Amino acid sequence: MDWNAVKNALPDQKITALPNIQDPAFLANAQTGLDGAFSWYAWPTDGGNSIIPGPMTTVWDERFLDNLAGRPYMAPVSPWFFTHFNTKNWVFICEDQPTLRWEQMLQLKPAIVEIVTWNDFGESHYISGNQPNHSDDGSGAWATGYPHDGFRTLWAPYIAAYKAGAAAPSVSADQVVYWYRTTPKATVCAGDPLGPPNGIQYLADVVFVATMLTEPAELTVTSGDGAAPVTVSVGAGIRTTNFTMGVGPQHFSVSRGGVEILGGTSEKDVADSCEKYNFNPYVGVLSA
């Protein structure tokens, strides 16, 4: 798009154009009047919709920053990606990305961060809770009953740190945010004509837990029926830990000085049977 023409047609308006650019090399010699650029590469990929093993890196961010040569870069932050339509059926390998990506933003300090997205249920990267009035395009099959507003709880300290130019988030209250898929990746969903999504071979069957603590504590996770509890020490601040997924209930507990300060069992069990494939994570929060 020729942004020079747009600006010339509206001389009394202050227009700053940061369009989505697919190839960052285009920016080095672009003469289209853009002032900066936005990247849609919010998930691990070699470009386009190619699926590669995770984790997310900053390789695309660095290409944009290099070619922008000081002009504003709007970096994407997204928690997840899973879609299951007959026209597109894949998962990007995000896993610990909800915290990893914000840690990258605090290091890179881009001019602007765009969260991708508020309510794109079709690709599972929404950060809203359940929205019963959402016009269903079929994504209700994997989004209904899978709230993601816990990501907003997790991200609030990161956003505050980014705005303040800080290198790390600051935590003022003890909380836990956890997320996990509700079936192991090898589970066969017999009633799904689309088959499993592309990319699942790169996924791990794990439960992710982000502790948000004012002081160090002990985190205990019991994943599945009959599973032995697993306890790890976690430091103050935000720390992300993962645990082997087990079929059945998911229980979480945080103790300090031998006293439980947070605890609870998720509303969603992990199941070893299904009708339709769902690689969208369930996100939960524990607060004191």
From TrEMBL:
Its EC number is 3.2.1.59. Gene3D superfamilies: Glycosidases. Keywords: Glycosidase, Hydrolase. One of its GO terms (molecular function) is glucan endo-1,3-alpha-glucosidase activity. It is an enzyme of class 3 (hydrolase). It comes from the Eukaryota. This is Putative glycoside hydrolase family 71 protein. It comes from Rosellinia necatrix.
